[in-house]
Input
Amino acid sequence: MTQAKSYAGLFDIVRQFEFRGTPESMIPYGNGHINDTYLLQTGEGELAYILQRMNPSVFKSPRLLMENITGITTFLRHKIEAEGGDPDRGTLTFFPTHDGRSYYIDESGIYWRLCYFIRNTVSYDRVMRPEHFYQSARAFGHFQKQLSDYPAHTLHETIPDFHNTPARYERFERAVSSDRMNRAEEVRKEIEFLRARKEFTHTLTDMQADGRLPLRVTHNDTKLNNVLFDQATGEAVCVIDLDTVMPGLSVNDFGDSIRFGANTGAEDEQDLSRVSCDTELFRLYTKGFLEGCDGILTKNEIAMLPAAAKMMTLESGIRFLTDYLEGDVYFKIHRPGHNLDRCRAQLKLVADMEEKRDVLEQIVKELS
Ligand code: ADP
Ligand code: GN1
Ligand code: MG
Output
């Protein structure tokens, strides 16, 4: 978490924003790998906020990123109102600073933002009940449907090539070549595994390039813990973590959810015998996602869902291994070798998806 700020410092930051209530307590919150997130409770009880320090090494253009988020959340508010929903719960509500900006820049140049804490909700780091996974699928599918008429050209590509798997692969090869931390020898097996799948990394980007897959407004980080569920009803309430909403491929949103949620083990599982692709969870997610998308997906998109699940898992394996080789500079780690554990779990999952390819393709056929 933030070393440079004391809690008193955090309260000073909060006071830069226009919001209701008297700040009372602040605690670190959630399990994201990127930002530093705090829950701010107020003396008014029912009012609470999320204060976030945006990760400066990940987000190089935080101003443009907040412009994207403001555009998207304003657009979603209208959609949610039209659907008869509550926009304060159905999407994130950010508060401006006293000078009318959607972020505050502290004295060291770090960007901060403040939004409503959506009360009586919970996020899950694992699928606790299959129903939650199904609900998250409907929510991510619906998110895509809601944004299907968003003016995509107004969005900034704040992390270029975010899901460009071949570009991720090239960066991985550069990390192997420079081997800054002297770690390449130890991960020979993983390097060979990835090299054997280099050609595959082009599958979806080639289809996008020649128009077989359409570019859409996508979330790009569809982990289960980026959805909030209502504590009472278990329904998905809100898609959060909008930092990576950019033009992208719908199938990657599907694939990243499968990678995280249909894994019978944890993302950073050390006991690889626990890692596999649960085909029933895959079926459930596919059903929910297709329902949420409500007819917007093309035939090609539907056909590529299983390949995208493998692609996002492979890409994450590439990214975790690259970060391990580069010295753990991107993802937060909580133990030595954490990124390597994450990588190994992804590669085991890729191998399992390859074995189950026919089953996964059959499931998609049955449901479409
Ligand atoms: P990161 O990019 O680091 O993953 P997130 O924006 O996903 O950051 O926030 C981290 C966690 O904080 C989420 O997984 C969720 O549990 C919690 N969280 C974030 N925003 C809210 C919110 N507005 N209301 C309730 N919980 C939230
Ligand atoms: C990061 O921010 P968070 O924890 O939801 C990462 C994703 C990875 C994920 C792996 C901006 O997601 O791309 O898939 O970790 N977000 C960014 O767990 O790089
Ligand atoms: Mg997150």
In short: The chain has 13 helices and ten strands.
